[in-house]
Amino acid sequence: MADPRWLDDREFRAWLGYRRMRLLLDARISRDLHRDSGLSDADYDVLSALTSRDDRRWRLQELADRMLWSKSRLSRHISRMEERGLVIREECATDGRGAVIVLSEGGWRAIRDAAPMHVESVRRHLIDLLTDEQLETLGDIADLVLEHLAADDD
């Protein structure tokens, strides 16, 4: 086995900075979202995914895949969202075992009301802190890492 390629000071600073930034940024934006709208990150992710489609519907398995959740975990979360009137679960017409998650009127109102405050939080805690060049670099870094991770899955 080859010797580990330890991180040098510059690499270590970047890695630790990224990890700490990600944790604190996610926590702050999540706290703002819940305070401003009563929605959790998972609620917001489900609702925003549903609004991304013209018919405001997703198969449960496709939505679980998009969120990187197990089908059973998402199903339990969807049940809690159903109780709050945010989504409706329907049987899949083409697969009797499948379910389709549909955005309800209450869910549409919730995401519409939450989105402006959520995007303001994202701006305040990240976007508006960066120069145009830094923002472009951050996007390039994200694209590069995501492409690498997608290729690793193959």
TrEMBL record:
**Which keywords accompany this UniProt record?**
DNA-binding
Coiled-coil segments: none
Looking up Pfam families in the UniProt record yields: MarR_2
On whether Repeat is a keyword of this UniProt record, the answer is: no
Q: Name one GO molecular function term.
A: DNA binding
What InterPro entries does the record tag this protein with? HTH_MarR-typ, MarR/SlyA-like, WH-like_DNA-bd_sf, WH_DNA-bd_sf
Acyltransferase found in the keyword field = no
- The HTH marR-type domain sits at 1-147
- What is the recorded name of this protein? DNA-binding MarR family transcriptional regulator
